[in-house]
Specification:
Elements: H1 2-19, E1 29-34, E2 37-40, H2 58-73, E3 76-77, E4 86-88, E5 94-96, E6 103-104, H3 111-136, H4 149-163
Antiparallel strand pairs: 1-2, 3-6, 4-5
Helix pairs in contact: 2-3
């Protein structure tokens, strides 16, 4: 799979980093090493998966939301944002990495790509709220509405569960 899909994903990731060039909260793209590797600026600090929750202030997540707005504003949706894709950089600043599953959509993108882009942006925002809740315990953090692909996926899951005799 790596040999088959790897170069395609790396092409997409390369394009994402190029679009995000100069955006605070995204490491600088240094170049393509070969068909299977890219080089990025090194960001000193742990990812959220290995960071201690007591050491992450609630303000970190406000900064993360601003970084995400900037990413989306440049026509890139991460689409698979997890705690491993968020780094706590110097000064406690958030950084987002790993755009291998991203979708890139410009103003002239076809309607299907624009729709998928909007759904992946929603998934990114939902992920940040869920991660914020996990770290801060903030019940006021509201998860953005469930619509579009999310609702279709949940509906299909219910149909499959019913067909298998599950409630």
């Amino acid at each position: 799979m790596r040999l088959l899909l790897g170069p395609f994903q790396l092409d997409r990731e390369t394009e994402a980093y190029r679009r995000l060039s100069g955006l605070p909260g995204v490491p600088r793209f240094l170049g393509r090493i070969d068909r299977m590797a890219i080089a990025l600026e090194y960001i000193q600090g742990p990812d959220l998966a290995s960071a201690h929750p007591d050491r992450i202030p609630a303000s970190f997540f406000d900064g993360l939301e601003r970084v995400l707005e900037g990413i989306h504003g440049r026509g890139v949706a991460h689409g698979d944002l997890s705690r491993r894709d968020i780094l706590v950089g110097p000064g406690g600043e958030p950084y987002v990495v790993d755009f291998s599953t991203s979708i890139i959509a410009g103003p002239d993108a076809d309607p299907l790509v624009r729709f998928l882009f909007s759904q992946m942006c929603l998934a990114d925002r939902r992920a940040v709220v869920k991660i914020r809740r996990r770290f801060t315990g903030d019940p006021a953090a509201r998860v953005p509405g469930r619509r579009g692909l999310y609702r279709i996926g949940r509906g299909l899951k219910r149909l499959v569960d019913r067909a298998r005799g599950r409630p």
